[in-house]
Design goal:
The chain is of the alpha/beta class and about 325 residues long. The protein folds into 2 domains: about 170 residues, Thiolase/Chalcone synthase (Peroxisomal Thiolase, Chain A, domain 1), CATH 3.40.47.10; about 150 residues, Thiolase/Chalcone synthase (Peroxisomal Thiolase, Chain A, domain 1), CATH 3.40.47.10. About 35% of the residues lie in helices and about 25% in strands. The strands form 4 sheets. Strands 1-7-6-4-5 form a 5-stranded mixed sheet, with helices on both faces. Strands 8-13-12-11 form a 4-stranded mixed sheet, sandwiched between helices. Helix 4 links the parallel strand 4 and strand 5. It is globular and about 55 Å long. The structure holds oxa(dethia)-CoA (UT7). Oxa(dethia)-CoA binds next to helix 2, helix 6 and helix 8.
């Protein structure tokens, strides 16, 4: 059996934060952010909004676009790096919000690679015939997890959500996939406190340990390498070449990562979907939001072969080669 995406949706909070506005918060400049990252603005959610709220909106649209009803969904996989809680799973909260009363629900944690991990996980349940319709949601409220005093990270991230329905398809769908991890790099990108390693305490709050910490240079080098490697691997696994690929939709972390990887792959930039200029890095939501925009702008069409490639904390990486059906 083949598994493919039959519906897609996304949702972005209205509030736009420009680089110029960030100049008032931290010691940065529009020029630095644009030159070093390619980001012009990002969205931020309101105070009372959690990842499940954005995820539920994206999910409703994905289900509608799949011509299904919430009751038709058998399973929900949420891949948020910024879940509503440690537990219960954000997937369960989304399940209740959208009234997908027949769905099993669980979270996976693969940070910015989460959507790719979730999509491949969903595809397995479809290919075995165990389930019919699976919702995969990447939703993030990173604005509540970044340290607004740390210019190294706060300029990079944004809030948003994307979701897909994965079901059986007659042709195309998932042609190949690659997943990987290297836990020795776990400390390069982390949110140190609030778990069992460093439970919340006065000290953890005082030392700002509940915010994202990143070694940007090391993560950058890692990202360029795995972007190239797993794009090549996923294409080879499908017995194709890069010339057969119509579009690459990468995780939207930094335009310089994309440029460096494309140079190594010798792949043209006009066949790459990029929207980080508008939204920054939305972690697990980056790829599905970019995919939704590319589809509805008519860029991606039926029959197109598309590589989704993700990388991030863990360290984790992954790619999926889809033929749009
Ligand atoms: O989604 C998960 C994956 N995440 C990523 O892939 C992110 C990967 N990393 C990156 O995108 C880049 O490393 C950054 C954008 C985070 C940083 O860019 P960089 O070119 O690697 O800069 P850098 O870390 O080498 O820093 C250069 C300088 C430093 O100043 P000094 O030490 O040379 O005086 C930083 O303090 O730029 C400084 N800097 C800033 N200056 C103005 C760092 N952030 C800022 C800022 N505004 N916002």
């Amino acid at each position: 059996m083949r598994a493919g995406i039959i519906g897609i949706g996304s949702y972005l909070p209205d509030n736009v934060v420009t680089n110029t506005e960030l100049e008032k918060i931290v010691d940065t400049s529009n020029e630095w952010i644009v030159e070093r990252t390619g980001i012009l603005s990002r969205r931020t959610a309101e105070k009372h909004i959690g990842s499940s709220d954005l995820g539920a909106e994206a999910a409703k649209l994905a289900i509608k676009n799949a011509n299904l009803k919430p009751e038709d969904i058998d399973m929900i996989i949420s891949a948020s790096s910024t879940p509503d809680h440690t537990f219960p799973a954000t997937a369960c909260i989304i399940q209740d919000k959208i009234k997908a009363t027949n769905a099993a629900a669980f979270d996976i944690q693969a940070a910015c690679t989460g959507f790719v991990y979730g999509l491949i996980t969903a595809a397995q349940y479809i290919m075995t015939g165990l389930y019919k319709n699976i919702l995969v949601v990447g939703s993030e409220v990173l604005s509540k997890m970044v340290d607004w005093q740390d210019r190294n990270t706060c300029v990079l991230f944004g809030d948003g959500a994307g979701a897909v329905v994965v079901s059986q398809v007659e042709t195309g769908g998932v042609l190949s996939s690659v997943l990987g991890a290297d836990g020795s790099g776990a400390s390069l990108l982390e949110l140190p406190a609030g778990g069992t390693r460093e439970p919340a305490s006065f000290e953890t709050v005082e030392n700002r340990r509940h915010y994202i910490k990143m070694n940007g240079n090391e993560v950058f080098k890692f990202a360029v390498k795995v972007f190239e490697d797993c794009t090549r691997q996923v294409v080879e696994k499908a017995n194709l070449t890069l010339n057969d690929i119509d579009f690459i939709i990468p995780h939207q972390a930094n335009v310089r990562i994309i440029d460096a990887a494309l140079k190594r792959l010798n792949f043209p930039k006009d066949r790459v979907v990029i929207n980080l200029d508008k939204y920054g890095n939305m972690s697990s939501a980056s790829i599905p939001v970019a995919m939704h925009e590319a589809l509805y702008s008519g860029k991606i069409e039926k029959g197109h072969k598309v590589v989704l490639v993700g990388f991030g904390a863990g360290l984790t990486w992954g790619a999926v080669l889809l033929e749009w059906s």
